[in-house]
């Protein structure tokens, strides 16, 4: 049996006993962390937006009850058959000098000044999951693509591309990074070129066609207009080109309005 001792790093995954999982997004030294009036420095700072989405109020009750037990010096059992209600926990914290919600004043570790807002802190059991950044690190310059969509394959074992999903797209949209978004989803994904006939505004093909003198040349040709004139080349994702071809096979013809930039 082989084992390694690893320190938590950015990207490692943790979870509480209530299924409130999360990923380490930032590491900070202890002296820069906020601390309570008793000098207690928290080990983990959790984003409060995680609770409405995951709906894990049991973790808040665990922290509040554990805080009252640690300060009161009494052991309580929180089995499903006990009556440790929110009112009982709130009253216990209130008797110990805290607000009924368990929040307290904290001091900024960098400035030493008291923060204006109250912070809820309490003991929670957190466990480390097997999903670690050291095992999931992945990079790629060029590699195999899917034969149908011409987009990078998804499997890391096949040296696939790094996934850029809907949430990553939403983040770049919120930041207004249009050039970066264009690069991720188009230039580095399934860049392709398509010929458009400006006369009928339909897609043209690149074929071998006969010309005068008995020769054959390869070039763009519009099957609707029976001509190779007024055909321009545009850059589109190959997925859009594939959609156009699939719709065309079902009798749905799309038209492209092009203009010279």
Automatic annotation (TrEMBL):
<dbReference type="InterPro" id="IPR007120">
    <property type="entry name" value="DNA-dir_RNAP_su2_dom"/>
</dbReference>
<dbReference type="GO" id="GO:0032549">
    <property type="term" value="F:ribonucleoside binding"/>
</dbReference>
<dbReference type="GO" id="GO:0003677">
    <property type="term" value="F:DNA binding"/>
</dbReference>
<dbReference type="Pfam" id="PF00562">
    <property type="entry name" value="RNA_pol_Rpb2_6"/>
</dbReference>
<comment type="similarity">
    <text>Belongs to the RNA polymerase beta chain family.</text>
</comment>
<feature type="domain" description="RNA polymerase Rpb2">
    <location>
        <begin position="160"/>
        <end position="258"/>
    </location>
</feature>
<dbReference type="Pfam" id="PF04560">
    <property type="entry name" value="RNA_pol_Rpb2_7"/>
</dbReference>
<keyword id="KW-0804">Transcription</keyword>
<dbReference type="InterPro" id="IPR037033">
    <property type="entry name" value="DNA-dir_RNAP_su2_hyb_sf"/>
</dbReference>
<keyword id="KW-0808">Transferase</keyword>
<dbReference type="InterPro" id="IPR007641">
    <property type="entry name" value="RNA_pol_Rpb2_7"/>
</dbReference>
<dbReference type="GO" id="GO:0000428">
    <property type="term" value="C:DNA-directed RNA polymerase complex"/>
</dbReference>
<dbReference type="InterPro" id="IPR007121">
    <property type="entry name" value="RNA_pol_bsu_CS"/>
</dbReference>
<dbReference type="GO" id="GO:0006351">
    <property type="term" value="P:DNA-templated transcription"/>
</dbReference>
<feature type="domain" description="DNA-directed RNA polymerase subunit 2 hybrid-binding">
    <location>
        <begin position="4"/>
        <end position="158"/>
    </location>
</feature>
<dbReference type="GO" id="GO:0003899">
    <property type="term" value="F:DNA-directed RNA polymerase activity"/>
</dbReference>
<keyword id="KW-0240">DNA-directed RNA polymerase</keyword>
<protein>
    <recommendedName>
        <fullName>DNA-directed RNA polymerase</fullName>
        <ecNumber>2.7.7.6</ecNumber>
    </recommendedName>
</protein>
<keyword id="KW-0548">Nucleotidyltransferase</keyword>
<dbReference type="InterPro" id="IPR015712">
    <property type="entry name" value="DNA-dir_RNA_pol_su2"/>
</dbReference>
């Amino acid at each position: 049996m082989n084992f390694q001792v690893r320190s938590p790093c950015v990207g490692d995954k943790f979870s509480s006993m209530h299924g409130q999982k999360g990923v380490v997004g930032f590491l900070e030294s202890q002296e820069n962390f906020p601390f309570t009036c008793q000098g207690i420095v928290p080990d983990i700072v959790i984003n409060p937006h995680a609770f409405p989405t995951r709906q894990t109020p049991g973790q808040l009750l665990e922290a509040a009850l554990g805080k009252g037990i640690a300060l009161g010096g009494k052991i309580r059992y929180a089995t499903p058959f006990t009556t440790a209600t929110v009112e009982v926990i709130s009253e216990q914290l209130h008797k110990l000098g805290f607000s009924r919600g368990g929040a307290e004043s904290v001091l900024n570790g960098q400035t030493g000044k008291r923060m204006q807002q109250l912070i809820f802190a309490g003991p929670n059991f957190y466990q480390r999951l097997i999903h670690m950044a050291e095992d999931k690190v992945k990079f790629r310059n060029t590699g195999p693509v899917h034969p149908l969509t011409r987009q990078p394959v998804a499997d890391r074992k096949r040296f696939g591309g790094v996934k850029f999903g809907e949430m990553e797209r939403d983040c770049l949209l919120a930041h207004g990074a249009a050039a970066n978004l264009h690069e991720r989803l188009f230039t580095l994904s399934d860049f392709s070129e398509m010929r458009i006939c400006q006369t009928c505004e339909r897609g043209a093909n690149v074929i071998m066609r006969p010309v005068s003198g008995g020769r054959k040349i390869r070039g763009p040709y519009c099957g609707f207009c029976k001509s190779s004139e007024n055909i321009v080349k545009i850059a589109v994702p190959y997925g859009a080109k594939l959609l156009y071809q699939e719709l065309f096979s079902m009798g749905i013809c799309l038209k492209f309005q092009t203009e010279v930039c």
